[in-house]
Amino acid sequence: MSDEDLDQVLLTKQAVAIRLINSAVSMIEAGIDPLAIHAIAASASNLLRELVAVRGPNYGSRVFASALFEQAIARVENRLAVADLPDDPEVEKAVQQIEDAIRNGQVSSPDDVVINMSGKIEAKAMRHISAPFNFMKHGDRDPDGLLNERELRPREALMHAISAFSFLFPNEPLEEATHAFVSSVLNETNIDNPS
User: Fold this and answer.
1) Which one, of 64, 71, 69, 170, lies nearest residue 122 by Cα?
2) How far apart are CA 81 and CA 70, in angstroms?
3) Which of the ends of the chain has fewer CB neighbours closer than 10 A, N or C?
4) What is the pTM of this model?
5) What gap in Å lies between CA 82 and CA 49, rounded to an integer?
6) Count of alpha carbons within 13 angstroms of residue 7, beta-carbon side
């Protein structure tokens, strides 16, 4: 083994993702450029969404199933839901079915809710996160392209990264600053969207 081999520090994808998440949280706290935050958070989000897809249902399916479950369990527990679902008859029907299944003991967690969202639909749903990231990543495709700065969603990209990390590593602790960030976002969501 050479000295060069001994000096290597090898990182798992999990370690890379958590460092990106923690860095993005620190950058938000410090008021760093939203473009830089979006790049870091979207990088973590993309990495983790790909890992989620390798291990089971894709990220979009998992998020939607969790949101439907959250809405249904909130009704069962007679409390406000954190999930922000579209006002749509099909969504309402799905929430009602899950609520009934919870009451009947057939569903007890989001893992019991099966949603099959294609990768193509997930990509479309995540476009607002991936488009600015892809703009930076693929400079050769459109060398004179422009990025609309108003399309940046650094906090949302970071929340998606944290959600995907939690799906993959539910028992892995996150830094206190990350918990505080999530709490602040959820509190803002409840204030802006009380239902």
Assistant:
1) 64
2) 6
3) N
4) 0.74
5) 22
6) 3
